């Protein structure tokens, strides 16, 4: 029987036949090492050539980068200087705007002072006219002259024409008219005995005034009827002049577009985007505190007039009426000529309470009360008829406030 155990000698021989010799392996390894050394030498030579070739370029790049860094630092310094200059310019612009606002405010004050000065000059002229009013009357085509000085009438005859200056003093009215129908017998005996004396005195005084004013160069002969009048400004025109000055100051203040007002005010200075123009609003408010005046009519009796609820949902009417009745109200004036608006002191709540019949839906009684009140104040005062009620107002928080104010239309359209 054969043994199945393999023969060890045969297997070793078989392996030795297929095995590579060791010297051959060493030879292959040496070849690879030499190839690797050659590759390394080539790489080193390439790196040396690359370093020699690109080293100068990199050095130039480094130099350029250093110069660029210096330029960047200079640019940053210039930007900082520009920002500082911008801040200085902004401060200068703000100072210029403040100066412009101050100048505009001073111009507005000058306009108002000019209007006030004109009104004072007109008052002086009126007073001077009341004292020195003289009238000269001549008979055209004849030598008969009549002087009226105060209450004294003096008549005299001249053979030659009288030269009178066409310039007139502001407080003097010079008239020339025909005097054919003047009856010399109606003059008093006193005037008949002293015509030449009075005429001589008046003529000397008049000649002295005209010569002092340098009017002798413009003397002409009086041959026809003529009159020189003086422009007098009413109190309403003076008030309108003040309002014109106020409007001019507000328009000037509106040119400043800052979010904060440039006007000084110890109470409050408007600022922020909530205001369309904080400077114009502040100027308008300051002018209102200075000039805005309300006149409260004294006609009418409580409880409908000069009275209102103060402890209900309609207390706005009563509180406003009572505030306007107080004498320490800075907006109230007792002089109606200096008022800008006029308040009708009746309460719609009281009209409804005392005149309206519940559930009747008839407001004629309220309308009659309003119309009667307007008729009373328009007959007693000229202010309603002057503006047809445009500068008059009432205050109401009641539902029937618009219905009550609709009766004013009847007052403005009625003859």
Automatic annotation (TrEMBL):
GO cellular component, one term: Golgi membrane
Alphabetized Pfam families for the sequence: Exostosin_GT47
Residue span, Exostosin GT47 domain: 289-404
A molecular-function term among this protein's GO annotations: glycosyltransferase activity
Location relative to the cell: Golgi apparatus membrane
InterPro entries reported in the protein's UniProt record: Exostosin, Exostosin_GT47
Keywords annotated in UniProt: Glycosyltransferase, Golgi apparatus, Signal-anchor, Transferase, Transmembrane
Predominant place of localization: Golgi
Membrane topology category: Single-pass type II membrane protein
Family indicated by similarity: Belongs to the glycosyltransferase 47 family.
Name recorded for this polypeptide: Putative glycosyltransferase
Organism the protein comes from: Prunus yedoensis var. nudiflora
């Amino acid at each position: 029987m054969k043994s199945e155990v393999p023969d060890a000698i045969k297997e070793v021989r078989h392996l030795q036949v297929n095995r590579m010799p060791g010297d051959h392996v060493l030879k292959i390894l040496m070849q690879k090492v030499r190839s690797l050394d050659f590759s390394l030498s080539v790489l080193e030579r390439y790196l040396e050539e690359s370093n020699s070739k690109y080293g100068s370029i990199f050095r130039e790049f480094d130099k350029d980068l250093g110069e660029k860094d210096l330029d960047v630092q200079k640019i940053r310094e210039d930007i900082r200087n520009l920002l500082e200059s911008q801040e200085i310019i902004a401060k200068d612009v703000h100072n210029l705007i403040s100066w412009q606002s101050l100048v505009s405010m001073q111009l507005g004050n000058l306009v108002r002072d000019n209007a006030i000065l004109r009104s004072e000059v007109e008052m002086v002229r009126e007073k001077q006219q009341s004292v020195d009013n003289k009238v000269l009357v001549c008979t055209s085509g004849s030598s008969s002259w009549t002087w009226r000085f105060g209450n004294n009438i003096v008549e005299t005859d001249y053979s030659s024409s009288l030269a009178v200056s066409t310039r007139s003093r502001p407080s003097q009215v010079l008239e020339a008219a025909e005097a054919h129908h003047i009856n010399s017998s109606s003059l008093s005996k006193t005037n008949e005995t002293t015509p030449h004396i009075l005429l001589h005195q008046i003529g000397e005084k008049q000649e002295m005034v005209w010569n002092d004013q340098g009017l002798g160069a413009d003397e002409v002969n009086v041959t026809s009827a003529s009159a020189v009048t003086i422009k007098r400004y009413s109190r309403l025109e003076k008030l309108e002049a003040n309002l014109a000055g106020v409007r001019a100051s507000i328009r000037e203040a509106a040119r400043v577009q800052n979010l904060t007002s440039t006007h000084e005010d110890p109470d409050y200075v408007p600022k922020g985007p909530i205001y369309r123009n904080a400077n114009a609003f502040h100027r308008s408010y300051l002018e209102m505190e200075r000039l805005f005046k309300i006149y409260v009519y004294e006609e009418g009796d409580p409880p409908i007039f000069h009275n209102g609820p103060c402890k209900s949902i309609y207390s706005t009417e009563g509180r406003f009426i009572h505030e306007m009745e107080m004498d320490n109200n800075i907006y109230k004036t007792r002089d109606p000529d200096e008022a800008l608006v006029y308040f009708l002191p009746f309460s719609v709540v009281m009209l409804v309470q005392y005149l309206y019949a519940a559930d009747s839906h008839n407001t004629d009684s309220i309308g009659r009360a309003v119309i009667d009140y307007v008729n009373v104040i328009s007959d007693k005062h000229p202010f309603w008829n002057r503006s047809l009620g445009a500068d008059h107002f009432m205050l109401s928080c009641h539902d029937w406030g618009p219905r009550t104010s609709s009766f004013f239309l009847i007052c403005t359209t009625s003859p």
